[in-house]
Amino acid sequence: MLQQVCNEHFLALVNQPCPLYLPDGSPLPVQVEAVVSRPQSRLPENTRIPFNVQLRSLQPTDFVDGLCALELPQLGRVEAIFVSREPALGRDPAQGYFNIIFN
What we know:
5% of the residues lie in helices and 47% in strands. It is mainly beta. It starts with 6 loop residues before the first helix and ends with a strand. The model has no long low-confidence stretch (mean pLDDT 90).
């Protein structure tokens, strides 16, 4: 299922709140802040253009990283998405900032 995910699935969610289902199954409200294409990272045998998705939690969280799930337009619930936390770096330290990389 992860091979079917492309940046267009996330573009519809930019600036929209949605639940990120954490490894324990609990939902964490997040907002998709940006979807960034990385065409220079594409391997010749791969048809999908690599991209990353930047998320921001809408409430404080201790979650750091792990395999999560998201509801994506046209695909439904997609499991086993590895989400990793980023440092706040000048942003609101009470929120969580996350990144998903699709190669």
